[in-house]
Design goal:
Layout: E1 4-9, E2 17-23, E3 26-32, E4 38-42, E5 56-58, E6 61-63, E7 70-72, E8 88-89, E9 91-94, E10 97-101
Antiparallel strand pairs: 1-10, 2-3, 3-4, 4-8, 5-6, 6-7, 9-10
The structure holds FE2/S2 (inorganic) cluster.
């Protein structure tokens, strides 16, 4: 069974950045892009575990701060020619509040 967990207000996430939420011992990065869309994925790059939350967001992608791999925020997949996939989570925005599906 899944439920929606209140994470924070939208303005508590830096635009083009992320905020880390701890869930069951796992770090989840909640991103905000330039159009105020929100995305969530495990804060671990599929390459060598870099903290994606510290990457730069552009459009619907984040660039890993360690070696520059680009990850799609929609599905967590590395953009070709890179390979790999980070686990994503459903998020929704309601009245300026961000909810994460757990
Ligand atoms: S750990 Fe992310 S690109 Fe290497």
């Amino acid at each position: 069974m899944s439920e929606w967990l209140k994470v924070c207000r939208l303005d508590e996430i830096p635009r083009l950045g992320a905020r880390v939420v701890k869930l069951g011992g796992e770090d989840i990065a909640v991103f905000r892009n330039g159009e105020d869309r929100v995305f969530a994925m495990r804060d671990k790059c599929p390459h060598k575990g870099g903290p994606l939350s510290q990457g730069i967001v552009a459009g619907n992608q984040v660039t890993c701060p360690l070696h520059g791999m680009n990850i799609c925020l929609n599905d967590g997949k590395a953009i070709a020619p890179d390979e790999g996939c980070a686990r994503t989570y459903a998020v929704r925005l309601e009245n300026n509040t961000v909810f994460l599906q757990v």
